[in-house]
Amino acid sequence: MGVSLSKGGNVSLSKEAPSMKNVLIGLGWDARSTDGQDFDLDASAFLLTANGKVRSDADFIFYNNLKSSDGSTMHTGDNRTGEGDGDDESLKIKLDQIPADVDKVVFVVTIHDAQARRQSFGQVSGAFIRLVNDDTQVEVARYDLTEDASTETAMLFGELYRHNAEWKFRAVGQGYAGGLASVCAQYGINAA
Q1: Which overall architecture, per CATH, does domain 3-186 show?
Q2: Reading across the β-sheet that carries 166-176, which strands appear in turn?
Q3: Cα distance between residue 189 and residue 45, in whole Å
Q4: Mapping DSSP to helix (H, G, I), strand (E, B) and coil, where does residue 138 land?
Q5: Is the pLDDT confidence value at 81 over 70?
Q6: Which long-range contacts (CB under 8 A, 24 or more apart) does 170-174 make?
Q7: What are 7-40's pLDDT values in tens digits?
Q8: Are 31 and 79 in contact (CB under 8 A)?
Q9: How many helices (H) and strands (E) does the chain have?
């Protein structure tokens, strides 16, 4: 069991897993009882430069763009139900392949068709993000999201970031009411 993080907490990868080169980011959630409609949550990653924006749309990794052009970040595929235990969706990151001008990789989960289905993170329970050494399968850090997000349709779960030439992982837990479009706009992508 790795470090258990609280909202805003961070962990140094060079201290907790000094030899780690390949990271697995596992994201999970459960839909609380709903009206029977499908509840499809989607994980994505944004590779950001120092100005907090992507270099291009290719730095937005999601179910329709499964791999970054530099090969550093890969989405393992869309899970449309979120059923079962463990990770519902995951991304793999090769730390030594992340370009030098990328300072941060943020991990976001959105609710597909949230507005039309009248769904929000208030109907989600058991949400978590975990960072695993993908070579050893040892969990390095985990953040269980506990706050009420009754109106939010997108959630920034966590981020990998460079600090003084080392990689760190931070638990974020920031919600967005505007869904994927609002997150994309913040990071410089036109999702319209």
Answers
A1: Sandwich (2.60)
A2: 10-12, 166-176, 154-163, 104-111, 41-48, 60-61
A3: 12
A4: strand
A5: no
A6: 170/5, 170/8, 170/9, 170/10, 171/5, 171/6, 171/7, 171/8, 171/9, 171/10, 171/129, 171/141, 171/143, 172/7, 172/8, 172/106, 173/7, 173/8, 173/143, 173/145, 173/147
A7: 999 999 999 999 999 999 999 888 776 666 667 8
A8: no
A9: 3, 12
Residue 185's identity, in one-letter code, is A
Structural domain boundaries in the chain: 3-186
Please give the sequence-ordered ranges of beta strands (E in DSSP) within the chain, or none if there are none: 3-5, 10-12, 22-31, 41-48, 60-61, 73-75, 89-94, 104-111, 124-133, 138-144, 154-163, 166-176
Tell me the whole-structure pTM to 2 decimals.
0.92
Tokens of 69: 């052009």
Rg (CA), the chain: 16
Q: Name the residue with tokens 């270099």.
A: 55
Task: Give CA angle at 184 (96, 29), nearest 5°.
Answer: 75
Place of tokens 């519902």: 88
